[in-house]
Amino acid sequence: MRAIILGAGGQLGRALTRALPTATALSRAEFDLSDPAALDWSRYDTVINAAAYTKVDQAETDRAAAWAANATGPASLARIATAHDLRLVHVSTEYVFDGTHEGPMDEDVEIAPLSAYGASKAAGDLAVSVAPRHWIVRPTWVIGDGANFARTMRTLAERGVSPTVVADQIGRPTLASDLAAGIPALLDAEPGTYHLTNSGPAVSWADVARFVFERSGRSRTDVTDTTTAEYFADKPAAAARPLNSVLDTTKAEKAGVTLPDWRESLEAWLS
């Protein structure tokens, strides 16, 4: 595979760079999608787009930047992939859904984003879907090399802080290293949209916090539950979040791609 990884400076991009050491890996600073002619696309057969604007709350007021990275950029990649007959892998998010679906969400659940961030990612998905050889991959709650929820909780645990964490948003953590291993394996499957997260039980953010606290030598009781409404009551500018972030990964599993239990992978990441 002659791959190029875009967004190589992010959590997933770094993991992909380690998983695919022969790939060309470019950070956002190293490649600007507004100038696609800057690259010789004939050198590649696969583009993996891990680049994104991920500041969920800031996107509510910085919509132009979110749209440029999450919608306009992927649309340019779709045109490039079509023109050069490239495989295009685009990393999406569960924020394209409104979180009201009961139970795990498969790839056919209706798109209904709640936020500017979610809308920009949904637009990117639609743009990428027109490329003949596309793979749209949706993970949840990514944890890797960089700023993330688990790292924040570990820091709080080590500092002796007892946080209050939302307990009504449900999902599964996805370790960037596991996702980076799973994405290339999906290329053996038919093009299309795939939900890909770690396996294991669906849990709340508060449950994940307790998991991290226990493995940091703290007690589960040091984490206090709250609701999303209560947590954001004094943050009127915050973006709306889907309460259900549990993705159905059956389609990926039928294609032969299953990621490890998130508890095992997160424990290893914390060690």
UniProtKB/TrEMBL annotation:
<keyword id="KW-0560">Oxidoreductase</keyword>
<dbReference type="InterPro" id="IPR029903">
    <property type="entry name" value="RmlD-like-bd"/>
</dbReference>
<feature type="domain" description="RmlD-like substrate binding">
    <location>
        <begin position="1"/>
        <end position="270"/>
    </location>
</feature>
<keyword id="KW-0521">NADP</keyword>
<comment type="similarity">
    <text>Belongs to the dTDP-4-dehydrorhamnose reductase family.</text>
</comment>
<dbReference type="InterPro" id="IPR005913">
    <property type="entry name" value="dTDP_dehydrorham_reduct"/>
</dbReference>
<comment type="function">
    <text>Catalyzes the reduction of dTDP-6-deoxy-L-lyxo-4-hexulose to yield dTDP-L-rhamnose.</text>
</comment>
<dbReference type="Pfam" id="PF04321">
    <property type="entry name" value="RmlD_sub_bind"/>
</dbReference>
<comment type="pathway">
    <text>Carbohydrate biosynthesis; dTDP-L-rhamnose biosynthesis.</text>
</comment>
<dbReference type="InterPro" id="IPR036291">
    <property type="entry name" value="NAD(P)-bd_dom_sf"/>
</dbReference>
<protein>
    <recommendedName>
        <fullName>dTDP-4-dehydrorhamnose reductase</fullName>
        <ecNumber>1.1.1.133</ecNumber>
    </recommendedName>
</protein>
